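task queued by scheduler; priority normal; single chain, no ligands, no partner chains; default sampling; output format set to structure tokens
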Amino acid sequence: MTDRSQSLQGPFDPGLQPERTELAWRRTALAIAIGSVISLRIFPLLLPADAAAWGLAPGVVGIGAACALWVAARRRQLQTTAALQSPPAAEPSPVALPGGGMLLALTMLAAAFGAVSLAIVAVSLLVR
């Protein structure tokens, strides 16, 4: 048998599914970063001059969250690949693969960002 045929017999094909998942999380982080940069530009213009600094908060938090998500996606991909490449244990491990913590954190971030954005727009409309 060749090396290629031996590698295809294993339970895991390295680089395919975990890499696609990491790339999807990176696209999500990039979208959050772009939205945050846009909010940095728009929100201070919508708010009155004395509250313009509050318009920077969602953008700064969003950029920080995008950076954290980018790093977490890479770490998750490495953990998943290591778990899938490791030989099967005699006793199954209760925590073999990463869970849905990143998805929960992203959902909470999106909800908080949306609520803050709506509040900023509401304040800008009420002041005028």
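post-processing summary
- The two ends are 76 Å apart (CA to CA).
- The first helix runs from residue 3 to 8.
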